[in-house]
# Entry
Amino acid sequence: MITHIRMRNFKSWEDSKKVEIAPLTGFFGTNSSGKSSLLQMLLLLKQTVEHSDSEEVIFFGDENSLVSLGNFREVVHRHQVPSRLVFEFAGKLTHPRLIYNIPEDGSPWEQMIDQFIFDSVIWSEQQKSVVERLEYRSGREIVIYEKGSVFFPSPYEQGRDQRKIELSTCYGKILSGQTISRSTKLLSQFASAFEELFSHVYYLGPTRVHPQRLYHWEGDHPEDLGRWGSKAIDALLSARVDKRTIQHKEKEIPIEDRISEWLREMDLAYSFLLERDGKDYDVRIQKREYGPKVTLADMGYGLSQFLPVLVLCYYVPVGSTLILEQPGIHLHPKVQSQLADLLIEVVTERKLQVLVESHSEHLLTRLQLRIAEGKIPASDTALYFCENDNGVSTIKSLDVDELGNIKNWPKNFFGNVRGDLVKMTREQMKRQKKAEG
# Structure
């Protein structure tokens, strides 16, 4: 779970300042306001963890990665080089881990670490990204990498390791073949905790793959659904074979059953079926109870775009973090409202953390209603509005009380719908008076 983020000199963000992240966090704002960049920072760090090329301390991506951001110059604020990228976040581990160290003098010590703060400064040197400074903090434990060496100003051991080391990643993984000392081992342990945290982060992009008439499954068991949800059907078949269930209302039920229930509640379909067709599978949808079963490819586009969202919410392990961009795209306003209920359910029942970027007024209004009803406490939510002024993004935290009221509603948050309605009423009254005489 991620508890706060901060970025400096990243794309349109000169300095985002500290952005608190709750179990359910929503980012709203106009187009090109910088809200996607807040999520891209986390995706950039995740794909760096997953990238195998030890020549790059930070992996800006390619056509197959979560995000493709080009290079250092394209990412840095206003493309000003020399400049420094600064990333910070705080995280809680799903499974606490043991940090172990042997100081120069005194007894060995060990400590369970369940949360830490990460802070990294990256700059470009001869068109190559370099880690200038890196710091991990957990309680009283601090380990710092700076100018090629490691030190930790802790009560257990102080001083700088004079041996120069080279990092293979921006988060502290040490280039292979180098001598491991006490200080570098501690840094490596934190880097391992960093990797564990991001192994529980899952992402779904703003548009999903087109539905197919037949799906070929090789029997694999994907860890996630892919950037565009291309592995959604593979994931469902994997869960079926493994007999995976989720807990809902104190009962254990198959994932497919809960998805079917949601489709009925949202009036998107009466039933959802995965049927074998020779060596392949097709997805059959029954729109009404006594209606025909048709393939997903013959249904409305909105259903095929939304299905991966449903699958991801129930396929990932309990306690995971989901990053969702525009999950309600192509959905009817009524279903956009119910999307808020889906997110609240998986946050409360499955202990997921959800970071969502959206333009949906209907989603936000339903969330406000559920806060007022006590379905989710306001303290478990964090809502933000992003703006961009002359190429610099700013973020405003929305003050939501326990009755769901937003006390500092930004001007024209979702355009000026209310203003248009007032003007329409005035024009109607004018025309009515004119008609009367």
In short: The mean pLDDT is 89.
